[in-house]
Amino acid sequence: MTPDLLEQGARRVEARMQQQAALGKTESGGRAAGFSRIAAAPGVVDVTHGRILYLEDVCVSFDGFKAINNLSLDIAPGELRCIIGPNGAGKTTMMDIITGKTRPDSGTVFFGSTIDLLRYTEPQIAQMGIGRKFQKPTVFEQLTVFENLELALKTDKGVKSSMFFRLDSAASDRLAEILHTIHLADSVARMAGNLSHGQKQWLEIGMLLMQDPKLLLLDEPVAGMTDEETARTAELFLTLKGKHSLMVVEHDMSFIKTISEIVTVLCDGSVLAQGTLDQVQNDERVVEVYLGR
Ligand SMILES: Nc1ncnc2c1ncn2[C@@H]1O[C@H](COP(=O)(O)OP(=O)(O)OP(=O)(O)O)[C@@H](O)[C@H]1O
Ligand SMILES: [Mg+2]
């Protein structure tokens, strides 16, 4: 979440409301939107060592409680990594650490082999190409699908110029491609607030994609979706794999089964098991934590 994008969105919503007031229409207030905006990447991510993300011995405590406890894991470029684990295992906290929202007490967190993420702020990490999707959809409800995507475009333009910003042809092509990818090509002129829950989630993913992230962190992306929306989200993630690296946290095992290669099981703040879904589901320690101790 970055203040400049929130402000741009707010200005657009305000402009829209003024337009509609002039036309005699009113609109009730919508939810604020926010997500990590990715601007020009300051450096190239070095993945020559075969890792885009590398965590080693990361620890974080909250009031003496070790939420993350010697956590080590790494992700390959283009990989779609699934993370599962019981409530309170530390999955969201791990994403907070990667994105700079929470500072670990100790440990190493690298983006590629040269970027020490612990030296950067949350907005800088977003700018370097790590996009994050929180569980609740956060889109600008009073703007159209098109306007939401346009707003998310990688641009250094200020608020004023962005309000009058016109897409160049490469950006238009990109927007059209993403609309298709997120299954919203037929809804381009619809108000985001009128979309279904699943469509809002896709729109937010589309907004992240507009910024061309190298790594996407998705926290419970299919929670609250219908079965059909969940199936389409699985398809979407499979098309993103390879072009981006993805880390997907989910409790929905049938979804995980459809998309997963390697599954990492977190428990008590560290990796309990890792392997294919079959392998981890047959691991006695995993069965034990899921069935309750
Ligand atoms: N800011 C915080 N202050 C205090 N405790 C926290 C904070 N953030 C997380 N925790 C605690 O850390 C543990 C891990 O929480 P986290 O939200 O990362 O789990 P999770 O694996 O994402 O769980 P879920 O599947 O329910 O989303 C929990 O016990 C939680 O209460
Ligand atoms: Mg969580």
> Helical amount among residues, as a percent range?
25-40%
What's the N-to-C terminus distance? 37 Å
Q: Could you say which structural class the secondary elements and strand pairing correspond to?
A: alpha/beta
Number of helices: 11
Q: Biggest sheet, in brief? A: 6 strands, mixed
List low-confidence stretches.
22-41, 156-161
Total separate domains: 1
CATH topology: Rossmann fold
By CATH's scheme, which homologous superfamily applies?
P-loop containing nucleotide triphosphate hydrolases
Number of strand elements: 10
Strand order of the largest sheet: 6-7-8-3-9-10
Bound molecules: adenosine-5'-triphosphate, magnesium ion
What is the N-to-C succession of helices and strands? HEEEHEEHEHHHHEHEHEEHH
Judging by the overall fold, what is the CATH architecture?
3-Layer(aba) Sandwich
Per the principal axes of the C-alpha atoms, what is the gross shape? Answer: globular
- Give the radius of gyration: 20 Å
Which range does the strand content fall in?
15-25%
Instruction: Average the pLDDT over all residues and give the rounded result.
Output: 86
User: CATH class, please?
Assistant: Alpha Beta
Describe the structure.
This protein has 293 residues and is α/β, with parallel strands linked by helices. The chain has one domain (3-291): P-loop containing nucleotide triphosphate hydrolases (Rossmann fold, 3-Layer(aba) Sandwich). Helices cover 37% and strands 20% of the residues. It has helices at residues 3-22, 91-98, 122-128, 145-151, 159-163, 169-181, 197-210, 227-240, 253-259, 277-281, 284-291; strands at 53-62, 65-75, 80-84, 106-111, 115-116, 130-133, 215-219, 245-249, 263-267, 270-275. The strands form 2 sheets. A 6-stranded mixed β-sheet has the order 6-7-8-3-9-10, sandwiched between helices. Helix 6 packs antiparallel against helix 7. Mean pLDDT is 86; it is low at 22-41 and 156-161. Adenosine-5'-triphosphate (ATP) is lined by residues 62, 67, 85, 87-93.
